[in-house]
Amino acid sequence: MADRIPIRTPNEISKLRKAGEVSARILMDLQEIIRPGITTKEIDDYAAELFRREKCGNAFLGYCGYPGQLCISVNEEVVHGIGGSKVLHDGDIVSLDAGAIVNGWYGDNALTVGVGSSVSEEARRLMAVTEEALFRGIEQAKHGNSLADVCGAIEDFVKPYQFGIVRDFVGHGVGRKLHEEPQIPNYRPNYPLPRLKRGMILAIEPMITLGSWRVRVLEDDWTTVTSDGSWAAHFEHTVAVGSHGGDILTERPRIALPEQLGISL
Ligand code: MF3
Ligand code: CO
After folding, report:
1. Which positions ≥6 away from 226 have C-beta within 8 Å?
2. What's the CATH code of the domain at 74?
3. Which end of the chain has fewer CB atoms at under 10 Å, N or C?
4. How many domains does the chain divide into?
């Protein structure tokens, strides 16, 4: 449905960038408080304070009845974890996913970070591969490419590591709503995808696991975990399709480069 993908003007993109900047700042501020002993409820409460401070809307709270300020997904939780009594421990990994609304325009972004100082080498590799896969996808988000080039770049980068690529959740267009056309799988699908045009806005979000790609949703109807209990990572940026690749609207420093995590890929 290429004709249903909105094309945003430079002026609209500058408004989306404002929403993206706030979304990114909220994630960076949240990342600062991640430490062993904190509960996911405390993270959610701090997010509430950040949204108040930024005087922006919250893209997730109330979305299809979602009860949290953001999604907080620990270890085998892939996405949509809800803040609660869970305590973070040294060596855990936690994914934070948050979106701001500024003047009716939406931002969406996510990252995975290690807790404390004893995160396993395997988990650090998972985070590094997932962040790099996101950037391989962003690189392909350029005018004239097929959307399948974005999807394929993510799949091709992840494949040699034999990690699981989650299939039940996908990236998406974002703009005046949290979810717009198109859907963006993290693998090359067996159906044709539209051509990309300058000004399309994409939220690209690989969700990668150390084991199976299969997931299931818990009793709370939100928290999504791997079917085999393997750990998962999730990185996301909102980008505008540009002439030379995706223009990142949720710009923030990278946190999972191999050299930052003391590994090589
Ligand atoms: N970033 C996720 C997405 O794009 C999270 C949204 S689910 C919500 O789908 F319910 F929390 F909003
Ligand atoms: Co998203």
Report:
1. 76, 78, 164, 209, 211, 212, 214, 215, 232
2. 3.90.230.10
3. N
4. 1
